[in-house]
C-alpha cells in the first residue's frame, strides 16, 4: 500500500513538473497602455461662459461658467467628468456646450475661500475634465 502511494505521488509530481515550461511573465514589468489623445487632438477649446463675467444675479440661479467647443466633426457631445473652482470640487452639468453651476454653491465656495462676502471682482481658476 505504501509503495502504491509513493509511486502515485511520484507520477503526480513528475506530471506536474513536466507541464511547466519555465516561460514566466516578468512581474516587475507590468502591462502598459498607450497614452490617450489629448483634448487638443479633437479641437476642443474652452472659453469663459457668457455669464462668468457678470455682476448681476441670474433669475434662474444658474451660471454658464465655461463654454466648450470643438472643431472636429467626430465630436458630437461632451460629458462632464470633474469640475473644480479654485481647487474645490463643485457640482456642475453640461447643457449644450455650456458647463453650468449653481450660483449659490459657487458663491459659498468663493466666500469661504476669500473669507469675505464683499461684492468685488474676483478671478477664479476653473478646472474641468470633459
From TrEMBL:
Residues 1-18 form the signal peptide. InterPro entries: SusF_N. Residues 20-129 form the Outer membrane protein SusF N-terminal domain. Keywords: Signal. Pfam families: SusF_N. The keyword RNA-binding does not apply. This is DUF5115 domain-containing protein. It comes from Segatella copri.
Amino acid at each position: 500500500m505504501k509503495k502504491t502511494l509513493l509511486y502515485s505521488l511520484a507520477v503526480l509530481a513528475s506530471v506536474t513538473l513536466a507541464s511547466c515550461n519555465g516561460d514566466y511573465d516578468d512581474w516587475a514589468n507590468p502591462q502598459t497602455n498607450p497614452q490617450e489623445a489629448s483634448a487638443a487632438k479633437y479641437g476642443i477649446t474652452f472659453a469663459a461662459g457668457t455669464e462668468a463675467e457678470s455682476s448681476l444675479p441670474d433669475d434662474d440661479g444658474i451660471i454658464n461658467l465655461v463654454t466648450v467647443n470643438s472643431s472636429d466633426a467626430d465630436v458630437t457631445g461632451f460629458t462632464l467628468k470633474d469640475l473644480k473652482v479654485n481647487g474645490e470640487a463643485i457640482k456642475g452639468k453640461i447643457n449644450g456646450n455650456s458647463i453650468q453651476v449653481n450660483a449659490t454653491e459657487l458663491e459659498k465656495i468663493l466666500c469661504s475661500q476669500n473669507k469675505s462676502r464683499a461684492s468685488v471682482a474676483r478671478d477664479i481658476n476653473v478646472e474641468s475634465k470633459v
